[in-house]
Amino acid sequence: MTTWKNWAGNQRANPLKVHEPECESDIVAVVGYATALQQRVKVVGSGHSFTAIAVAPDHLVKMTRYNKIVSIDAEKMEVTVESGIVISDLNKYLNKAGFAMPNLGDVTYQTISGALSTSTHGTGALRTGLAAQITAFRLVVASGEVLSCSPTENSEVFHCGRVGLGALGVLSTITLRIVPSFRLQAVEEPMRVDALLTDIERHIADNDFFEFYWIPHTGWALTKRNNVTQLPADPPARFKTWFNKMFMENIAFGAICYVGRFFPRLIPRLSKALPSTGRTEYVNASHQIFASKRIVRFYEMEYSIRRDAVVEALNRVRKMVDEKGFLLNFPVEVRFTAGDDIPLSTGSGRDNAYIAVHVFKGMKYEPYFREVEAIMSDYDGRPHWGKIHFKSADALERLYPEWKRYIEVRNRLDPEGVFTNDYLRRVLGR
Ligand SMILES: Cc1cc2nc3c(=O)[nH]c(=O)nc-3n(C[C@H](O)[C@H](O)[C@H](O)COP(=O)(O)OP(=O)(O)OC[C@H]3O[C@@H](n4cnc5c(N)ncnc54)[C@H](O)[C@@H]3O)c2cc1C
Fold this sequence. Notes:
By secondary structure, this protein is α+β, with helices and mostly antiparallel strands.
């Protein structure tokens, strides 16, 4: 029996069978085989979701052999890929060809289809999440049919399927909008969090990609300001990159987390020593700047809220942490994106701020996450589909203006629930 587990190690599955399709007709065959037996199908990407969204009850489909570039169209500025491609591979390919993704999240270990299916996003006040870059896709649905979807063909499935939660069918090939490759100038520096919040609108507006991390038990935030530049690449020397990105952000930080796990009372003091290299500034290709290496494992919850509520919401989280006495060794991450028109995107129809909370692997997260969730609920908070939360369909449907539109497409494409699992039953109602 195969046991599958996700990156954080908090989700497991013992599927009946594992499939590794190499072409679209293999995917059609797997779906046909499962439906004939009245069994369920679940594709897994890189297992980087913290929720049970990728847990396969019966047939687990791995896309590790269906991961190639299909074509690049320099006139239309589009790339078409097989859905199992890992984002870091896509970035390397695009960079070599002189192109880039317009925005990315903070790691690139995910498959493109996994990232799109859960509404993965980065930061940037005028930038959307990744799914808004989709211009077309092919979808293998429960009937065994393959639907070509775009704004002009199967347009309703296209509209809803850009963030599909893996519940509409199996994404086969995906076409994405790309941009000419570009460089970013990155400036990373600590700031007093109160001063930062007083001036937050300016920081968001003045930078192409702005984010910060508030460090619990301190009045400090680590800020990251990335701006498009024509300056030549000037990455830190190899040793400095290793020291800053691997040693400080992973090894030293991991060591501090371990000590904190065994001696939680030391956490507030350890937080004051949280690794920071002071101010650093460098220029590099966009994909090198957006993404970091993450070897310290953790559990995460992230909420999208109305952007105008971010200061109040974060200040309530800070107050709550003090009042409840939570001992936290991970920073709270805050990002910003522009709204889009995708029914189940966490950015649907509004400009957003994202507040993400983390707990070191092996430590108790539920009491802290529930308190944060209660605060985010006061600001129409929408949970990231791939990150831990406690909401069900009855609460979620009120948060998405086009919820019904998505549900109607799902009812039509998958009436028997071939692509469902326990998590989807909870968040979608069946
Ligand atoms: C260290 C780390 C950093 C992260 N950083 C960010 C970040 O910066 N921003 C952000 O928004 N999120 C972030 N995430 C969350 C992550 O982007 C999402 O959970 C994403 O879904 C993971 O992609 P995956 O390939 O691992 O997919 P999985 O977790 O394996 O699957 C996710 C969903 O996609 C579905 N799926 C996958 N492939 C297909 C397909 N071909 N057809 C249909 N459905 C499919 C699965 O069935 C499942 O429903 C991070 C997670 C981790 C662990």
